[in-house]
Design goal:
Number of domains: 2
Strand content: 15-25%
Strand order of the largest sheet: 3-4-5
Order of helices and strands: HEEHEEEHHHHHH
Helix content: 40-55%
Shape: elongated
Amino acid sequence: MKELIEIQNELKAPKGQTNAFGKYKYRSCEDITEAVKPLLHKHKCSLTISDTIVLIGDRYYIKATATITSKKEKSISVDGFAREAAEKKGMDSSQITGATSSYARKYALSGLFAIDDTKDADATNTHGKDSNVNRNIDVKPVIKKSPLEEILSENGIDKGEFAKFANIKTKKQADDLLLDRGALDALMTDFNNRNKQ
């Protein structure tokens, strides 16, 4: 779908949220939808996001589906999944479901619009106003974080220390842990409680 390719190319979805605990910036579902609305209008497309609850194995997940539809009624959909934590301190069950829905929607939208964690080139572009600046810049490759690293980073947890604590030695073990969000949340809680002692 030509319109989706154009929107993916033009979309700039900045990380508009700050995690006070971990002192890092992140992008929310709302940040993505606000950034994409003008582009949807420009390219005469619509976006719908829906949630369903699905049973995978013996676990329930929220499946968010983001669908873009063109003026010609062509559509493309991408799914994102997230599992509710059994409990989350300071949240009632509806808040837990809402937070899980936002998480699943964020990843469905990220997949649909090809959003990654690379730096926006416009953020460092000075449009020639820095002609006297030393151009000897140390360029380092951007290494995309795994989904588990993203979750740990969002929660202010060091991946190396967590891997030792949870006895994660292979990528498959990390991937399996991602499929059981309740177990992952419980391990992160135990890890944080242990570090507070």
